[in-house]
Design brief:
The chain is mainly alpha-helical. About 65% of the residues lie in helices and about 10% in strands. It has a three-stranded antiparallel β-sheet. Helix 2 packs across helix 5 and helix 3 packs across helix 4. The radius of gyration is 18 Å and the shape is elongated.
Length: about 160
């Protein structure tokens, strides 16, 4: 009988790196097919989860607020997002995805053929298990802003 060697963290990190590379390439090509940069597509994906203040969006995207302003200006010009003044604090600008922005986000996801093909190779049980594992690995903090959104959106899809 052959002993099974447990998979180490380094091996998993390498597989995650490969997986994310495929996902990012797929996402970038799909966003480009909608005449968007990867950053613009990512912005729409974040806003699809719900309205976000400009500063919070910059934090979620890991970039400077001045970069977000340029991204939002271009998305707003295309009618994909709109700015709203926060009712709680008039100094805060909240970003909201428009119905056209939602349509474009759906189109990007539909065009992610390599990612969809990989996920389609999994059984329903395996996809549920993968979701559970990804949540445990990446969404362990209760205060993580994506926690409730990921759970509700994956249940709906």
């Amino acid at each position: 009988m052959t002993a099974v060697t447990p998979t180490g963290a380094d091996q998993l990190m390498e597989l995650l790196s490969i997986s994310l590379g495929v996902y990012y390439g797929d996402f970038t090509a799909a966003a480009a097919s909608e005449n968007l940069t990867a950053s613009q597509g990512k912005t729409l994906t974040v806003l699809r989860r719900g309205p976000v203040a400009m500063r919070a969006l910059a934090e979620r995207m890991g970039c400077d607020a001045s970069n977000v302003t340029g991204i939002i200006n271009r998305l707003e010009k295309r009618g994909l997002v709109r700015r709203e003044t926060s009712t709680a604090d008039r100094r805060v600008t909240t970003l909201v995805i428009t119905p056209e922005g939602e349509r474009v986000t759906d189109a990007i996801r539909a065009k992610m053929h390599a990612t969809r093909a990989g996920l389609d190779r999994l059984s329903d049980h395996d996809r549920d298990h993968l979701r559970t594992l990804l949540e445990r690995v990446f969404l362990t903090r209760a205060d993580h802003p994506a926690n409730s959104v990921v759970r509700s959106s994956t249940n709906a899809e």
